[in-house]
Amino acid sequence: MKFEALKELDSGYIAGTYSRYALGVSKAEGHRLFDCGGRELIDFSSGIGVASVGYGNPIWAEAVKSQIDRLAHISNYYYTEPMARLAEGLCRRTGMKKVFFGNSGAEANEGAIKTARKYMSDNYPGRRDTILTLTGSFHGRTIATLAATGQDSLHKNFGPFPEGFVYAEANNIKDLREKLTSRVGAIMLECIQGEGGVIPLTKEFADEIAAICRENDVLLLADEIQTGMGRTGKFLCLEHYGLSPDVVTLAKGLAGGLPIGAVLFGEKTEKVLGAGDHGSTFGGNPVCCAGGCAVLEILSEGFLAEVAQKGEYLKEKLLALPGITGVSGRGMMLGAELKDGLVNTEIVAACLKKGVVVITAKHKLRFLPPLTMTTEEMDEGLAVLKSCLE
Ligand SMILES: Cc1ncc(COP(=O)(O)O)c(C=O)c1O
Among residues 153, 243, 246, which one has the least CA distance to residue 206? Predict the structure, then answer.
């Protein structure tokens, strides 16, 4: 279908919740997208950190296709092997004890919030009911995860919100201490705030949170939806900080392009939710879980070391480009600060015209390439970015 016809069809029937760029994607292979006219684009976005092992990765594609032929769906009344195997793999990689599967990041965070509330209600009835989150955070678009999200701009028009959330300024230990009332029983955080502008937590701030959680039986809920699954060069970003979580949430790259979300429970939380407390019709879908098992197989320790190296390479190359004044983030999750006068959305649009896909985070350019992208392909894309910045 030609782009103009697609655009007209889409705007005729798709709800206007997304402001889109002028690109229709008809196909993807490896680290490249193909538009409606067959034009090739190098992709530094991987569908916002989802196609982490590349489009059509043969190991992943084979696992998914054979699972579709075998069993595409069955209800959670019954056992299926891909679901159990993926949970086993995730626990082995992270040291967590149990897993609940849903379908998206927001749904995973809903599960984490319910777990924290039940833990507080079981252990501190009438005394604890509050989850502390950070300003600038992003935890999802459902009502509870929006309430958890520490960005006022996203709260407008959607109230009333569920109670039980309090916000502390990210990387401000004094504010954290002030907001930590006796009612707080859990802290939810992203080690690097993705949607908030690729802002990493400082080590001191993370250490403070770890101490608070340890000393006060406050649960640590790590939202690794954007940072997890090898994105920063470790399986989980919290490994860079030495944090021990009670709950971890994953989604995005977990199944390499299929919809999935996961809540991982540690020792303190593995038995908090019992039969009937939580559920999801599609959660643990065998096809998505087969995709997830293939992703785990691909993310070996050697692969993660390469992600770290390629991330350093990309960071250095970005820093050398005209118009880029700083680069934040870690591994292959980077945010580039632009010099005054350059508008990130204009650069993105110019790059799209010239065959490169980048995205934004607040006022920065954001890079979340497939983790399998080579340095040669990075160079190819960066040459185009350079011409747009000039
Ligand atoms: C850190 C974080 N948490 C939660 C979400 C929500 O995930 P989803 O869009 O799959 O619901 C996102 C999505 O960008 C995210 O980056």
Answer: 243
Residues 24 and 82 in one domain: no
Among residues 279, 298, 317, the one where a domain terminates is: 298
% residues pLDDT > 90 (the chain): 100
Q: What is the DSSP letter of 82?
A: H
pTM: 0.98
CATH of the domain at 190: 3.40.640.10
- Average pLDDT estimate for 158-187: 98
- 23-48 burial, b at 16+ Cβ within 10 Å, e below that, comes to bbeeebebbbbbbbeeeebbbbbbbe
Task: Report the alpha-carbon angle 273-193-211, nearest 5.
Answer: 60
Q: In this structure, what token pair is assigned to residue 178?
A: 């002030």
Closest atom, ligand 1, to C-alpha of 226: 16
Number of alpha carbons in the 13 Å side-chain half-sphere of residue 292: 30
Q: Which of 195, 224, 359 to mutate to test the pocket of ligand 1 (most atoms within 8 A of CB)?
A: 195
Nearest atom, ligand 1, residue 137 CA: 1
